[in-house]
Amino acid sequence: MTESILQVVNLCKSFGGVHATDQVSLSVRHGEIHALIGPNGAGKTTLISQLSGLLRPDSGKILFDNKDITGYAAYQFSQAGLARSFQITSVFQDLSLLDNVALAVQANDGHAFRFWHNARKDQRLRTPAMQYLQQVQLSDQAEQIASEVSHGERRQLEIAMALATSPKLLLLDEPMAGMGQDESSLIIEILKNLRGDKSILLVEHDMDAVFALADTISVLVYGQIIATGTSAEIKTNTAVQKAYLGEDAA
Amino acid sequence: MEFSLLLIQLLNGLQLGILLFLLSAGLTLTFGIMDFVNLAHGALYMLGAFFCASLTLYTGSFILAILLALPLTALAGYLLEKLVVQHLYDRNHLDHVLATFGLILCIDTIVHIIWGPQGIAIPLPAWLSGQVELFDGVVLPSYRLLIIGVGLLAAAGLYVLVNHTRLGMLIRAGASNRKMVGALGVDITALFSGVFALGAALAGLAGMLIAPITEASIGMGSDIIITTFVVIIIGGIGSMKGAFLAALLVGLIDTFGRSFLDDFFKLLMSTEAAETAAPAVSAMLIYILMAIILAFRPQGLFPPLSR
Amino acid sequence: MTTTTSARPDHRQNRNTETTRLLLVSALLVLILAILPTVLYLTGHTFWLDIFTRLVILAIAAVGLNLILGLGGMVSFGHAAYIGLGAYAVGIPAYHSTYGGMDAIATYNGFFHLALALTVSALFALVTGIISLRTRGVNFIMITMAFAQMMYYAIVSLETYGGDDGLTIDVRSEFPIISLDDPLTLYAVSFISLIIIVFLVHRISNSRFGLTLQGARSNEERMLAIGVNCYKYQLAAFVMSGVICGYAGFLLGNFTTFISPEMMDWTRSGEIMIMVILGGATFLWGPVIGAIVFIILEYVLSEVTVYWHLPFGLLLIFSVLFLRNGLASVLQRSHSQAGKGQ
Fold it and tell me: Measured between alpha carbons, how far is A5 from A32 in angstroms, rounded to an integer?
């Protein structure tokens, strides 16, 4: 299975008898946008927390780039090349957008035991940071402080920061949460531009966005993957319709 | 090592532990529920002692003085909460530290102005200043037994309050999940003021109980507050059970360290070396204990669930 | 966090005026601290040189504390311990040179005192930092406090060095060429040290290391998500901060020539913290300004009344309640707000 970048094998996690993640297996191929959908309470958050090292699975394996990374600490997931964005915006509120991204670039550039050279003038950090900001269309606001830009722009910043760690896989947790129509379509455009360049595991509620972007969709219900396929297959899958879309349509 | 000496030190340790518990009970609640760092808690301990000293001299009765000084200290705590502390709950810990540090300076100086720079001794009634012969040859000061008794009584009262009343339920809920208590439609402001005043009264009680032994003095609060912190850290912030057990542990270890460590060291090294090392090590003992416990359990022994 | 999309000031411009203002404040402070005490001393007001020497030494400690407090968001309440350690690193070797015993460390050699002060501070910071930094928030504040108090009691119990009563340093640290016995020389050494340390902290705060610390202060979860384990950087900063305060202690011991455990009492740690916050933790010169205001205020108020702690305490409470970003916020409208908790 060399063609998959991330492979999740029989992952289990339960909280006091409740199986939040129940024998989940899932594989994300190189270069694809793989969407993970599911109704509220399906266990998406628990799954993501395990895929970013914030929670330790009870059993099962996480293979990333043919390496077993189960049980790594959160920062080691990122170092291995698996970058995440947060559902609830998590950026450095009191730093400028450029500093935010530069920190992520720096994180990927080995240790930070350099005490003298001015990092704010270091072109090895600033130039790539600016490029990532450009990629998410924020280069004009580079010098602004993160707490002063709009919610949508902070969501874009999240993606830039994830990109800046040069990940092999982006794990995006509802990147469009709390966004208006225009802001959402901007994110969709940004993600489309990344297609083929980066593998993406996208957790999202916005079905329009999912169908517009995803190469493959996995449906998570009650902690289990009940279907995996292309958008056309998922749309016509009866089990999915019953468990998920049916609910939504009702 | 004689048996009676061991017993006396055991009682001394218990007494220290009980006092530390009275101090930490209120403090751990304000930490747990309000997430508030109160450096001035020791000042309330001192206020209790001075109230009690004056009232004893005025009324002539130590017991009556305690009964009067308790509500007085609670009132002082209530006023502090209303005037200053209440406005700081939504600030960061740094602001708490600075403002309550300012409070210490103010309260210390006010006490200095009212009572003067000297400490005030509290005379004990005759029936308390004597000794009790427990059994053959083992004689114990009755006042120390009283401290332990009163402290255990207060601990039992707190246990009932926290575990078997509605107020206690709110306190426990607040310690683990503040937002939920707010969502329950409880008058948070009143709950916080009440808890703060209760904590003040308990700290004051500790001050009143110790004052006949050490006398009421201005520095007394600042000295004991750090030990109280150690107790809370070891017990786990917000945990009443943790505070109780950690207080006894710290009280016993500190007392035993001070009385027996030099004998123990003399078994290992020269008498001269032991006499130099023992006081230093025994002074550091509870901090070393804290460090060891934290190395294994950074949240303390009994951290409240889901913080 | 309100968001305004309408008015967007030009931030590049803003940053430039900030740099200019920083340079101006730096030049002004350096000039005042260089000229004023010297002139006062030479015109016979020797007492003021003492005030300024103490002020500058405590400013060094405040700048050291601010490295972790302002930059790294670590509220350490035990930094007086390092001052004490630094001072006793002068006092103890000097004591043994005078009265004999402990030949291994008995010396008046200033370089030895200095090396001892820095090493001991670094070690104490390393050991306590390893444990303290595993905790956050209130726990961290109290644990740093407790470890400092542990040192306090340890020194109190050392009867040889005076215990509670303290220790008089009969001979100051000896260096070639200069003599710390000359008040003006001691002031010059302290002053130049302060300038160098402020400059070092300035460089550090803009370095990769400094940026990492700021990231950890701002959002530690985010740091983990971008692959940074903050612990080792925080520990390094904690040690550096302790070493700077140890150096301040070395100077303070040589200045007062009388040292006692009282120097490391937790209320002393509180005073250093007050200096940092009064001056503004987010501003490079904040701790220095805070130290100036604190020492001058202490002096002026204590001239007026023996009960000067009362107005001082009230001032402190009011400044927390009504002046949210410290005194330096008047000089610099800072973007950064110290967030809730750490």
Answer: 10
- B280 close contact with C: CB closer than 8 A: yes
- Number of structural domains chain A divides into: 2
For chain B, positions 234-273, list CB contacts with chain C under 8 A.
237
Chain C, nearest residue to B34 by Cα: C138
Q: What is the pLDDT of residue C123?
A: 97
The Cα A206–Cα B17 span in angstroms is 59
Chains A and B lie in contact, requiring 3 or more CB pairs less than 8 Å apart: no
Q: Are residues A143 and A186 in the same domain?
A: no
**Partner-chain residue, chosen from C219, C236, C335, that has the shortest CB–CB distance to A90:** C219
> Looking at chain C, which residue has its C-alpha nearest residue B31?
C138
Residue C118 CB neighbours (<10 A): 20
Question: B40 near B27, Cβ under 8 Å?
Answer: no
Residues 90-109 (B) with a CB less than 8 A from some CB of C? 90-95, 97-99, 101-106, 108-109
Cα B214 to Cα B45: distance, rounded to the nearest angstrom? 13
| Contact present, A133 and A143 (Cβ < 8 Å) | no
Tell me the two tokens of residue A59: 């059993």
Contacting C residues, span 220-249, partner chain A, CB-CB under 8 Å = 221-229, 233, 236
Mutate which: A64, A88, A101, A147, vs C, most C CBs within 10 A: A147
A115 and A179 share a domain?
no
Least confident window among B79-93, C14-28, C94-108, C326-340: C326-340
Q: Are residues A122 and A22 in the same domain?
A: no
Is the CB of residue B86 less than 8 Å away from at least one CB of chain C?
Answer: no
- Please tell me whether residues A153 and A173 are part of one structural domain: no
Could you read off the pLDDT of B8-29 as tens digits, one per residue? 888 889 999 999 999 999 888 8
Checking if the pLDDT of B1 tops 70, the result is: no
Q: Which residue has the higher pLDDT, B296 or B108?
A: B108
**Gap from A84 CA to chain C (nearest CA, Å):** 7
Does residue A59 sit within a domain? yes
Going C247 to C249 to C252 to C257, the CA torsion angle's sign is negative
Q: How far is C102 from chain B (nearest CA, A)?
A: 13
Neighbours of chain A (3+ CB pairs under 8 A): C
Instruction: Find, among A148, A120, A155, A154, the residue nearest to C11 by Cα.
Output: A148
pLDDT of residue B178: 64
> Which sequence spans correspond to the domains of chain B?
3-217
pTM of the model: 0.87
Structural domain of A104:
91-166
Which helix (H) or strand (E) segment holds residue B223: the answer is helix B220-235
Q: Which among A114, A144, A166 is the end of a domain?
A: A166
Residues A159 and A118 placed together within one structural domain of the fold: yes
> Is A92 within 8 Å of chain C by CB?
yes
Are A106 and C337 inside 8 Å of each other by CB?
A: no
B contact test, residue of C68, C92, C153, C156 with most B CBs within 10 A: C153
Same domain, residue pair A200 and A134: no
Q: Is residue A72 part of a domain?
A: yes
Select from A133, A166, A199 the last residue of a domain: A166
- Residue A24 β-bridge partners: A11
The domain locations on chain C are 48-264
Contact between B40 and B11 (Cβ < 8 Å):
no
Instruction: In whole angstroms, give the CA distance from residue A212 to residue B60.
Output: 86
* SS3 letters across A86-106: CCCCCCCCCCEHHHHHHHHHH
